[in-house]
Amino acid sequence: MPRFYCPVDLATGLELELPAGAARHVQVLRLQPGDAITLFQGGLAGTGEFEARVTHMGRSSVRVQVGTHNAIEREALREVHLLAGITANERMDWLVEKATELGAASITPLLAERSVLKLKGERADKKRAHWQAIAIAACEQCGRNRVPVVAEAVDLAGWLEADAQAPPMERLLLSLRAGSAPVGRFAGSLSPAVFLSGPEGGLSTAEEEAARANGFSPVTLGRRVLRAETAALAALAQLAQDD
After folding, report:
1. For the residues 133-157, what does the mean pLDDT come to?
2. How far is 36 from 201, CA to CA, in rounded Å?
3. Are 214 and 171 spatial neighbours (Cβ–Cβ below 8 Å)?
4. How far apart are CA 156 and CA 97, in angstroms?
5. Closest C-alpha among 29, 52, 39, 53 to residue 5
6. Which residues pair with residue 146 across a beta bridge?
7. DSSP label of 186
8. Residue 39: strand pairing partners
């Protein structure tokens, strides 16, 4: 059954006009009055998902009747926040999509020293909106009812300063340094964690030292050197457990 992100107050029996994004998606799929769909609020306005049925298809509007609420969540057992160095072009799109599918609780694009893509101002705002839309689409596809927030791009110093006020959680840093512990050693825990990985070329020495000074433990994925986006996702797949 087609699933649509609908960040408005939903309730059984309510008839409403879908937000523009969901309405366009319904029209692209050529759904008709009477067709069944699923709506979810993304975890911001509520949890679970609602059965619904299309009641009216207009030129630019779609109305639906909201049915039964199902308290279904498909979140990973462990809350893992991804702090990922911004990679070039489509690779970052792919990282956001797959990190959402794998259960990342949030995604913060990191303006690392070696990031090829440099963002600021209006361009940064547009990129953030673009990545958030990718996360929403990934949730519609994979069945998640909680959309991970794609945060504003920030450099490591800025993130560390802001995180000083946040609740403590386990901090892991992807590193190529000798002596780093296998990431799998940390996979059995259910405590919240933040995982930091760099862009192409990795984090700079100064960035890695700053992270370690602020409580990040260096971990490794093994002897092979993976692409930046692959490495972040390989670690996330081990840390964000599903059962």
Report:
1. 95
2. 47
3. yes
4. 22
5. 39
6. 42
7. G
8. 4, 50
Q: What is the DSSP letter of 77?
A: S
Q: Which residues pair with 70 in a beta bridge?
A: 49
Phi, psi dihedrals of residue 155, rounded to the nearest 5°: -85, 170
Contacts of 29 (CB under 8 A, 6+ apart): 2
- Which structure tokens are listed for 241? 């457990």
Q: Which two tokens stand for residue 138?
A: 């990934």
Give residue 36's Cα distance to chain centre. Answer: 27
> Tens of pLDDT along 11-21?
999 999 999 99
Name the one residue in this structure whose structure tokens are 């002596």: 179
CB atoms within 10 A of CB 214: 16
Q: Phi and psi of 85, rounded to 5°? A: -55, 135
pLDDT tens digits, 31-67? 999 999 999 998 755 689 999 999 999 888 999 999 9
Q: Measured between alpha carbons, how far is 22 from 90 in angstroms, rounded to an integer?
A: 24
Give pLDDT, residue 43: 75
Please list, in sequence order, all residues whose beta carbon lies within 8 angstroms of the beta carbon of residue 225, skipping any fewer than 6 positions away: 176
**One-letter amino acid for residue 240 of the chain:** A
Residue in 93, 193, 105 with CA at minimum distance from that of residue 148: 105
At 179, the amino acid letter reads G
| Beta-strand pair 106-110/80-85 | parallel
